[in-house]
Amino acid sequence: MGNCLAVRIKAESPFHSASTSGTTSRNNSKNVNGLSGSSSKVSSTSVPPTPRSEGEILQSSNVKSFTFNDLRNATRNFRPDSVLGEGGFGSVFKGWIDEHTFVATKPGTGIVIAVKRLNQEGFQGHREWLAEVNYLGQLYHPNLVKLIGYCLEDEHRLLVYEFMPRGSLENHLFRRGSYFQPLSWNLRMKVSLGAARGLAFLHSAETKVIYRDFKTSNILLDSNYNAKLSDFGLAKDGPTGDKSHVSTRVMGTYGYAAPEYLATGHLTTKSDVYSFGVVLLEMLSGRRAVDKNRPSGEHNLVEWARPYLTSKRKFFRVLDSRLDGQYSLGGAQKAAALALQCLSSESRFRPTMDEVVSTLEQLQEAKDTTKSTPAQGNKDSNRKLANNGQRSRRRSSADVVNGKAAYPRPSAPSLSS
After folding, report:
1. How far apart are CA 269 and CA 347, in angstroms?
2. DSSP conformation class of 318
3. Are 277 and 195 spatial neighbours (Cβ–Cβ below 8 Å)?
4. Among the four 18, 44, 58, 229, which has the fewest Cβ within 10 Å?
5. Residue 63: count of CB within 10 angstroms of its CB
6. Rounded CA separation 274/351 (Å)
C-alpha cells in the first residue's frame, strides 16, 4: 500500500473505438501508482485478435442484449435491499428472469441473476465493461462465471451474470464472527483446484488469455463450492508469434502482482501463476495477502511466509490454526511446496497452470487432503479433535446472510493508473 512503482508502461489499448468513460482500476478506490485493490471457452473457437471495435465485440458475443428497463424490472428498480455487493465498478444487484424468455419475473420465480451496474462516478469505466463482454461473451468453461448478457443504453452500462449462491472466496476465508466458521481443508483444496483449472483454460493454446487480476475476491463459489473466476475487466490477450510477453501499464492488486511485472510491465502467463501462489498461500494460512493490522514484519504474507515454506520442519507455522489439523502432513507439505514454487522470484522457475492442476489433482487422488488427524510436529497450532462432536454447531460461512450471498467487497489498494 503506497508502494512506489519504479516503472509504469502505458497500456496498449485493446480496442480501437472503445470509449473510456472511466479509468481502469479494480474493485477498490484507485491508487495513484496503478495497482487495484482488492475480473471461457469450453468451445475452443478462436478469439479474433485485438484490437477490435466496440461494434465487433458486441456483435461477436454470444450473450443477450438487455434493455435498461428489462434489468430495472428484474431487480425491482435496483432496490437497496437487493444489493449483493459493491466495488469500484459499482453495485451488484440480485434479480430474477424467466429461464427461456429472459423477461423479468417475480422474486422467487424463474432463475436468479446478478446484475452489475456501472457507477458513472466510479473508478472503473466503459473499457473494463467492454473487456468483460469481449472475454466472457465468448469464453465458456465450468470454472469461469457465466455472462448471460449486458445492457448498453445511453449512459447505462450493465452486466448480467449467473448468480453464485455462496459468494466470494474472500468472504469465506476472512469474514469473522460467531455465526461463521472457516472453510475446511477439503473445501479449500477443492476451490484451489477449480480456480487453477479456470486459469489453465485461459492460458491454453486455444485461448491465450492472461487474467491479470487473480485474487480471492474474484473467485466466486456456487452452491457446491465449485470455483468460478469472475471480473475480466483487466484480462489481456497473451503474446503472439515469437513474443515472450505483453507490455502494459502495471495493473492488478497489491500483494498479488508478480515482481517482474511490477518492475517492467512485462505480462506473461507466469504473472498469473504468481498470483495463484499468493491465493493458495492465503487459503493455507487464513491470512490476507496484505494486512496492515498484523504485527510488524507480517504485513506482507509472502514475505512473512517464505522462510517457513522453505523448511519442512517449520512450514506448519504458516498453516491456519483454525483448520484444526484436518490435513495430513504429506498433503500439507505438498500444498505448501506448490505455493512456494508458484511464488518463485524468477518466473522461469514457476510451474505452468497445467502443472499446478496436475499437482492438485494428484493430491486429491492420493487422498492427501482428506485425512482428519493433526499434522505431526504442529505442537503449537493444532488442537485436539476429540471433542469436535460435542461442540455447538456454528453457522457455516457458506450460509446465506440475511437471504443474500456474500459477494466481493473492496479489500486492497489498486494498482491501476
Report:
1. 9
2. G
3. no
4. 44
5. 17
6. 9
Distance, CA of 164 to CA of 166 (rounded, Å): 6
Sequence-distant (6+) residues with CB within 8 A of 177 are none
End-to-end CA distance of the chain: 14
pTM of the shown model = 0.77
Amino acid symbol at 350: R
With cut-offs at 50, 70 and 90, classify the pLDDT of residue 405: low
Q: What is the mean pLDDT of residues 252-268?
A: 90
Q: Is the per-residue pLDDT at 250 higher than 60?
A: yes
Virtual CA dihedral for 158, 413, 121, 53, nearest 10 degrees?
-50
CA distance 248 to 329: 41
Catalogue the active-site residues: 213
Specify whether the CB–CB gap between 209 and 203 falls below 8 A. yes
The DSSP bridge partners found for residue 116 are 92, 159
- Residue the block writes with cell 505431526: 376
- Three-state DSSP state, 389: helix
**E strands, 313-377, in order:** none
- Could you give the 3-state DSSP secondary structure of residue 274? helix
- Has 41 been labeled as part of a binding site? no
Q: For the ranges 32-41, 55-64, 152-161, 278-287, which has the lowest average pLDDT?
A: 32-41
Residues near 13 by Cβ (< 8 Å), separated by ≥ 6? 51, 127
Which residue ranges form the domains of the chain, and what is each CATH number? 35-162 (3.30.200.20), 169-390 (1.10.510.10)
Q: Above 70 in pLDDT, residue 40? A: no
Classify residue 154 by burial, with Cβ atoms within 10 Å: 0-12, 13-18, 19+.
exposed
Interatomic CA distance for residues 194 and 144, integer angstroms: 9
Residue indicated by cell numbers 469500484: 88
- Per-residue pLDDT band for 248 (boundaries 50, 70, 90) equals confident
pLDDT of 345 over the 70 cut: yes
